[in-house]
Amino acid sequence: MHAACLIRAEPSLHPIAMPWPKPSAEKTEHLERALSRRGDRRVLFGAPTWFVGGNMFTGVFGDDIFLRLTPTDLVEIKSLGARPFEPMKGGAMKEYATLPPVVMRDEKPLAHWLDRSYSYAASMPAKVKKK
């Protein structure tokens, strides 16, 4: 099944399906190794994502790995070249950023930022599953 989002080109037109970018298999494998079985893996909009306590903290979107971070951590990672996580143009997700290449190249910084993201999401109130 192909993941898609619905948008309206003009208010008078019917919604049209826009495909989500296919998640990079290489980035997905890289992230899975780095996470070392932390979090609960789910598929959201056709992409692999990881949750702790029902709160999403990381995932793969196209060729990007994104993280959920505190406002202070967002400032720091953006100084390293991270961009806001924007799954739809003009729709940046608050608290999320994409990993910059400098972090992806080295296991130590990657582990550091994944730890920061996991810890932040774990500190949030757990979401109760709806029945």
Low-confidence stretches: 1-9
Task: State the CATH architecture.
Answer: 2-Layer Sandwich
Structural class: alpha+beta
Mean pLDDT: 86
Helix content: 25-40%
Report Rg. 15 Å
The number of distinct structural domains comes to 1
What is the CATH third-level topology name? Yope Regulator, Chain: A
| Strand elements, count | 8
Strand order of the largest sheet: 3-4-5-6-8-7
Strand content: 25-35%
Write the CATH homologous superfamily. YgaC/TfoX-N like chaperone
Features:
alpha+beta, six-stranded antiparallel β-sheet, disordered N terminus, 31% helix, 4 helices, two-stranded antiparallel sheet
Kindly describe this structure.
The chain has 131 residues and is an alpha+beta fold. The chain has one domain: 2-Layer Sandwich (Yope Regulator, Chain: A), CATH 3.30.1460. Helices cover 31% and strands 27% of the residues. It is built from 4 helices and 8 strands. The chain has a 6-stranded antiparallel beta sheet. It has a two-stranded antiparallel ribbon with strand order 1-2. A hairpin with a 2-residue loop joins β4 (47-52) and β5. It starts with a strand and ends in an 8-residue tail after the last helix. Residues 1-9 have low confidence and may be disordered.
